[in-house]
Amino acid sequence: MKSRRLGGSAIAVSDICMGTMTFGAQADEAAAHRILDMSFDAGVNFFDTAENYPVPPKLEYAGRTEEIVGRWMKTKPRDAIIMATKVSGPSHGWLKAMQRSGMTALDRRNIIQALEASLKRLQTDYVDLYQTHWPDHGTAYDETMEVLDDLIREGKIRVVGCSNETSWGLMKSLAASERGGYARYVTIQNNFSLNNRRFEDELAQVCRQEKVSLIPYSPLAGGVLSGKYQDGALPQGARFSNYIGLGGRQAAMAKRFVNEKSLAATSRYAGIAAGLGLSLVTLATAWSKSHDFVASTIVGATHPDQVADILAAADVTLDAETLKRIDAVSKDIMYPMG
């Protein structure tokens, strides 16, 4: 497993990161621990969770994922694990968090309470990477960055990152850190896949110039790039099969990920993968980690039998001709996720 630095920090991580957002909902604890063990044994040292997991968020099991990950982490040397978790952003807009009676924000009180609770669930006294799960553009970045800096100085966090952030927000945060002498975000965790290349439009250049690493999530476009939704299929228990029935925000998300354009693009990528003798899952993961601004690609699994094709990407480097063929699909079917 190759490794890369997170931004300009001292932390080096495997270029594949195992995400955990289904643990405690779609994946029970036994399956979750098996997935984590398989990843660790294959050389993955980087694991990502959040206080608001599993998803979709429900009050009755909010924080369960961190508890599952914490019990697993106790079976491994702590120094061998790079653990990332997240504090929820504001609950009055993009997403309602289950923590703190749905009154979450990225102010001092919320961040400190969130971190203390995460440390308890994870059964550790520090996290390696602490991330803001989604932005709070109504709270001054100076306040957010100051408290994160304080927690680094206390030894409870090693480095900090953001998630689901905009170019404007990332630059505002970096400016606040520069003004106050605070720690900077070294990572940004945004959606990025063969079916969603919008990060390349602006944010990739911000990352290059500011030495911020992307740790992309959803490299399989929510499972669409596994091919399981092709030809109108809605597999039982699959995320978007479930989301369609939930209505509201979840149904809208399902339509964004699973639509005529995304399925057409997926079909063409499947052809490229077959020609290389790879699974589509392996191709999509290898493509994600091929970018210079990417430190580590966050993957996910619900069942242990999904792990092998994902981890196979560790040994795959896509050549220039393959990347050219992939780019041709992106040009023919632009922005399949809108």
Question: How is this structure best described in words?
Answer:
The structure is a single chain. The protein has 338 residues and is of the alpha/beta class. 40% of the residues lie in helices and 12% in strands. Strand 4 (46-48), helix 2 (64-73) and strand 5 (82-87) form a beta-alpha-beta unit. Helix 4 (141-153) packs across helix 5, helix 9 packs across helix 10 (280-288) and helix 9 runs antiparallel to helix 12 (320-332). The protein is globular.
Give the helix/strand layout.
Elements: E1 3-5, E2 12-14, E3 16-19, H1 29-41, E4 46-48, H2 64-73, E5 82-87, H3 108-122, E6 127-132, H4 141-153, E7 157-163, H5 167-180, E8 185-189, H6 203-210, E9 213-214, H7 239-246, H8 248-257, H9 260-276, H10 280-288, E10 297-299, H11 307-311, H12 320-332
Parallel strand pairs: 3-4, 3-10, 4-5, 5-6, 6-7, 7-8, 8-9
Antiparallel strand pairs: 1-2
Instruction: Give the C-alpha Rg.
Output: 19 Å
Q: Kindly report the spatial arrangement of strands forming the biggest sheet.
A: 9-8-7-6-5-4-3-10
The H-level CATH homologous superfamily, spelled out, is: NADP-dependent oxidoreductase domain
- Give the N-terminus to C-terminus distance in angstroms: 33 Å
User: What percentage of amino acids are in beta strands?
Assistant: 5-15%
